[in-house]
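Just curious. Invent one:
>
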Amino acid sequence: MEFQKVDGRKARGEKKRRAIVEATLRVIERDGVTGVTHRSVAREAGVPTTAPTYYYATLDDLLIATLLWSAEELCDEMLHVVATGSAREIAQCLARAVDEHRGRTLAEYELYLLAGRRPELKPAARRWLDLVAELARPADPTGFRAFLAAIDGLLIQGLIADVAPNEAELEPIVSFLIRGRDELTAAPREE
């Protein structure tokens, strides 16, 4: 009986952590990283004002958790598409990221770039690159990183464009890039 109570508390704690991290990304979407405080996140998450500091003692801890969650949860579709998708699939994914999901993408990049100023955020910011490289298993890791840098560049250009590029505009560029990716990606290794 005691075991079930502990599991219930743990599950509620995980649920609250996730709500706090999701709320942090929404605050960043709306107000930028400078709008993130334990109080603003608590308000957005609908939790007591002490909850964010209970789970994440510092704002950096909260931002790191949000970066990791973003890389591992939100970017799952993009990871698979960028690592293995066709030019059309990648172009569709990029077009959605800079149009339909523009706020979320902008918030993720704002967090990502913050790591340049805050060394403690760097490992979390690099997590997306690690995940996509693990999935693609590139034969030429350096060349594959160049491909990923080009994808990052397309996303950033799309975010600052007056009108977000659509799939048709992105597909020829991605077709050019994907040739390099496919040449750099090894056949699956035998386990």
